């Protein structure tokens, strides 16, 4: 046997480790129905302007990434992306949604869109607070 570390570990091995941890976690639970979820907005020239992605699982929307092109920020596109992801999740039967951010402005936007902060980790990254926010459409039993 031989140990590898840092740059010696191939990207494929890193992905295999991630996949194995996720698979193990899902095997411990009952009823995983994980599905990718995404939406994207393109301009007339085919350039990506905004988008978001994540997954739905266990009747919850997990938003992993939400992005708006820097030149288009402040136009409400971030809220539009989130509402589209939410609409897809609701059609899939989700009861709530979870999103995290290190940006105070983004956390304020999510709160404006109906999310409530359920956790803070101050100085998660020096100078930044990690905000975990949740939006409940229907309470869980």
Automatic annotation (TrEMBL):
Domain (N-acetyltransferase) ranges: 1-139
Name of this chain's protein: GNAT family N-acetyltransferase
């Amino acid at each position: 046997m031989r140990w590898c570390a840092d740059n010696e570990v191939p990207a494929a091995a890193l992905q295999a480790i991630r996949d194995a941890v996720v698979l193990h976690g899902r095997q411990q639970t009952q009823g995983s129905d994980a599905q990718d979820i995404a939406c994207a907005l393109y301009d007339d020239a085919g350039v990506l302007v905004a988008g978001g992605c994540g997954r739905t699982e266990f009747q919850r929307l997990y938003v992993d990434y939400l992005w708006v092109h820097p030149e288009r920020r402040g136009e409400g596109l971030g809220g539009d992306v989130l509402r589209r992801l939410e609409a897809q999740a609701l059609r899939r039967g989700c009861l709530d949604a979870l999103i995290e951010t290190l940006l105070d402005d983004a956390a304020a936007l999510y709160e404006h869109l109906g999310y409530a902060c359920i956790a803070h980790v101050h100085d998660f990254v020096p100078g930044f607070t990690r905000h975990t926010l949740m939006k409940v459409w229907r309470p869980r039993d």
